[in-house]
Every structure is written in structure tokens, then in C-alpha cells.
Amino acid sequence: MTTSEPNTPVPSGSQAILEVADVTKTYGEGHTQVTAIANASLQVQQGQFVSLLGPSGSGKTTLISMIGGLLTPSSGTIRLGDEMISSMSKKELTRLRAERVGFVFQSSNLVPFLTARENLLYVASLPRHHDRKAAAKRADSLLAELGLSDRANNVPEKLSGGERQRVAIGRALMNDPDLVLVDEPTAALDTELGRQVVQLLAREVKQRGKTGIMVTHDLRMVEYTDEVFEILDGKLTKSTGDPALAVH
Amino acid sequence: MMLAFAEIRRTRGRFLSIIGALSLITFLVLTLTALSDGLFYGSTGAYRSSNAQAYAFSTDAEGSLVRSRVPVSDVAAYQSTEGVTQASGVGVLLTSGTGPDGELDLAVFGVEPDGAGVPTTLDEGRMPEPGEDSAAAVDQSVADRGAVIGSTITVGSRAVSVVGITKDSSYQLQPTIWTTIPTWRAMQESVRPETRGLPPSLSAVALELAAGTDPNSITAVANTTVLSTDAAALAIPGVKEQRSTLNSIIYTTLLVAAIVVALFFALIVLEKRELFAALKALGTSTARLGTTVLTQALVASVVGVIVGVTIARLLGLALPAEIPTLFRLDSLIQVSVFTVVASVLGALFSLRRIARIDPATALGGALQ
């Protein structure tokens, strides 16, 4: 698989859009130092949807936070396309998240006083250069694709849990990001709805040629992903066989 | 902007509560200011409307016209003092008299009509001519009690005919009448029999100064003290005290406005911590979230001020005339600006809290 960006100064031999290399994250100092992530490396190709599987406390949130530019690694590097996330300032990270990363949170975390459509338009207003007309068009087509056209002018309170998560997916895709990070998308949903939401996510990510990473502890959801990474006590491994082993 | 206005529109109730609180605060401050202005302007009109830049009082009078007593010869002494272009005697008598509508409190001013210490705010008619006894110009507040040009005002056994009406020239909240020094002296002897037979005296000497002369640089004649007209206005018993008391209430109330707004937005931000973390994770800058809160504070305070001003004006019209209130445009603008500034300053306290919200907390749920 090749990257779509011809100018990307990619290190030779690597064509992954996302490359995490030997990343460690520690908290505290001296005796009280805790290692949340130890020497993690992974590569994800464009168009891939992968899952990050692990029990709570395993470090999966820490890892995805670093990949999404919310935390800075203690050591190691994270590269997204041509940008070195791991060495960016806070301000640059804010810009990066607005332009190149989409997030789907556990509880949808939509703005409660904005309608579904306005929630999409809000994130469209975040990048420095944005086109209102194009954003309105894109919001409408995303909402239509997610089956939310007739719910577009409702505030989150008037939407069901599944509808809210679909709006959140629309919001994550709104700025045409390179990377979509999904944090336990099914936590607030029942099994069937959760399955539908993950299916929808997988479809959207692949159709649009995005790169997706989903954090989950739910084994039933990994069947919709291309690859499974397991994480346990801060150690990341690429799953080859039965991922159930990692969950216990 | 999108967040600020959408939130106000869709969660109207809570913003109505802060707007209501700010309206009441504005109303309170404005009413207090009107009272403060009413007391101040009602007390000091005779000075503020005067054509004199300074007054000379007897030293023991502490700048009070009613306590001061100077010999007639001081007028001539001041006339020849350097920096003084004109010195004129002023006599003051606080008493009561009878006007067309019956008895009223009065401050009788005896002045030299072509000299210093005369009101410049003649609205109608004329001042008495020099040497014209039994004539007086009266303050608008006397006209409000029924006097017109040609009316008769009686003080003791002495009657004067109204020949003119001046504006904003009351003294110690009392209506004033402006007459000649002989008429004033006759009235005084009529209502204060103990002053009969004493050598003629005056209350003070009003001084017109050469352009650019500092009133404090005038050399005082023996046993007298020179005060600028502004200083003399503040030396009226009670004026300074009333003003500082009411001003401290006003400033305290403005402080309360800032605290109310600070608490309101502190609560709003506390409640939205999770949402703000998510918005930051999505790439919203702290500056943008801060602008949202400040915009909301600005909108709430501007609307609150408009409502408060409206209530205060409507209620001011309904206040009885005995309460000395004065709604001045400059005070109104000042109070409005102060209230808005106090609100925005209050909201500024929330910015630190917003800055401290860590976007990383948006991931991993509430437990981490």
C-alpha cells in the first residue's frame, strides 16, 4: 500500500501513514514512577481500520491519546503522514487535531445546545482555513449518508443513543481527517446497536480511505477490523491468534 | 461565536436569571446614583451656577456660608487683592417664607446683581437691578411651587416681587431666592430680631479672579479663608459625607455584580468541564472557549444594563418630588459602562479554569 501524499518525506522502507516507533510514556519520578506504555511500536496503512484491544488500565487510552496528539510521549516518535506528532507544541497539536484527526468518544460528547447539523458545522469552523458553504454541503451529505437527514435539526437530547453516536461519527469525518480515533464507541450502547455503529464506522473509514484505530475491550467488535493490536500492562503486541488471551 | 449565541438561545432560562440579576443590580446602582446626584446637585446649585471662582469665608466657619460672617470692609480689601478682578458681598439666610402656594423653606441670597456670586443660569426674566429693593430672582424649585414672574414671596415682614427665574441654583436642597444685599439684610432682621442693631456684616465675599489664577494662590485678608468654588461646594455640611457614603454603596454593589457574574460563569464552566475537554480534543483552542464565555458575559451584561436602565427610568418618573433624585446622562453612561466592565472582569476569572482543562481527559471515560 502506498500513501496518497507524493511529497511526504517518508523514511525509506516505510509506507505507513501512521508510524509509532518505540514509544514509552511514564508518569511521576523516582520510586513512584509508573510506566503506562513501554516501547510500543506499530504501523497502520492508509485505509486500514485496526483495533486496540485490552482490559481497562492496560494503557490503551494512554497510547491512543499520544497518537491523537493529546499526550506527548516520554520517549519515542509518532508520525502521521509528514508530521511528527511527538515533537509538536501544544498549539501545533491543537491545529493538528482540528485538521487531521477525528475523534469518536465513549459517550458521544456532542455539544448539547447545538443541533446535529450544527455539531458538524462547529468542527468545520475549527481549522484556520474553512469554507462555510462547502462545510454546509458536506454536513448535509454526511448526515444523509448516516441516515440522519430528518434528525439534522434536533439537539442531542432529542436523539437516541445510536443516533447520537452516528452524529459523533459524522463529526469525526467532517474535516476529512487522515486519522479517525474511536474510543470504546459501544460503551453506552446495547450489543446490537453497538455492532451497527462499529459496522458503520468500519465502512466509512474504508470507503473514504481513512485510517482508523478503535480502542475497545469488547472482543465481539474486533471482527470488523483489519488488524488487532493487544495491549496488556503497557506492552503492545500485534495479535496473531486468539485475541481472547489478552483480555483476561 | 456560534457556541456563545447558540447556548444563550437554547438555554434561555439560565441566561435570563443572570440577566435578571444584572438588571436589578443596574437598577439599584442607577437609583443610588440618581439619589447621590440629586443630593449633590440639589445641595451645590448655588455654587455651581455662580459666576465667582472663589469665596472668602471667616476662618472659623470651615467654609460654610451659613456659619460664616465677615465685616463689610473685607469686600474692599479683597477688591484690592492681587488676582481678584471683582469682589462682592454675599449674604445668606436659611429660613422659611410664603409663596403663592403657601409656606416653603427658603435660602435667601443677598448679592450685588452686577457683581460676583450671582447665578449665571437665568432662564426667564432678569436679575434684580442694583439698588432695586423688593425684587428677587427665584430658583426653578420655587417656580415649581407656584411662583411665576410677578408673584410675591414674603419672608418675615418683608415681601419681594419675582422678576426672574434661575435654573439649578438651589442650596442645601432648599429653594433659593436672589435679592439685593439691603433686602436680604431687612429679611434677616425681620426673622432674626437678635441681628438688629449689630454693625452690618456679610456672610462671605464672592471673588471673580483674573483668568488662569489659582484660587489657592490668593492672599487671604485677616481672619478669612479663601476656597475655590468647587471646594466650597464640597464644604457644605453633609455633601462630602453623603457623596462618599453613597459612592461606597455604589462601588460595593458593582463589586457584587462582578462576583455574581464570576460565580455564574464559574458554575457554567465547572458543569461543562467534560464538554470543554472534548471540544479541546477536537481542536478548539483555549482562546476560542474563553472568547465564548466573555462574549456571553458581555451579552448578558449589556442586556441586563438595558433592562435595568429602563426600569430605573420608569421608576424614577414615579418617585415623589420630595426625594431628591436626578437622572443624569453622564452618570447613566458611567454606571452602564462600569456594570458591563465589572461583569466581564468577573467572567475573566473563569478563563484560568478553562485553560486548565486537559483535553486528554476526553478519552477513556470519566474514570481516568
Describe, in plain words, how this protein is organized in 3D:
The complex is a heterodimer of chains A (248) and B (368). Chain A is α/β, with parallel strands linked by helices and 248 residues long. Chain A has a single domain (45-69, 89-240), classed as P-loop containing nucleotide triphosphate hydrolases (Rossmann fold). Chain A has helices spanning 60-67, 90-100, 116-124, 132-145, 161-173, 191-207, 244-247; strands at residues 18-27, 34-44, 49-53, 75-80, 83-84, 101-104, 179-183, 211-216, 227-232, 235-238. In chain A, the strands form two sheets. Chain A has a six-stranded mixed sheet. In chain A, strands 2-1-4-5 form a four-stranded antiparallel sheet, covered by helices on one side. The radius of gyration of chain A is 18 Å and the shape is globular. Chain A starts with 17 loop residues before the first strand and ends with a helix. With 368 residues, chain B is an alpha+beta fold. Chain B has two domains: 2-43 and 240-362, no CATH class; 89-205, no CATH class. Chain B is 48% helix and 20% strand. In chain B, the strands form two sheets. In chain B, strands 1, 3, 4, 5, 6, 7, 8, 9, 11 and 12 form a ten-stranded mixed sheet that branches. Chain B has a two-stranded antiparallel sheet with strand order 2-10. In chain B, strand 3 and strand 4 (102-111) form a beta hairpin. In chain B, helix 1 crosses helix 9 and helix 9 runs antiparallel to helix 10 (329-356). Chain B starts with a helix and ends in a 12-residue tail after the last helix. The mean pLDDT of chain B is 92. The chains are: A alpha/beta (248), B alpha+beta (368). At the A-B interface, helix 1, helix 2 and helix 3 of A face helix 1 and helix 8 of B.
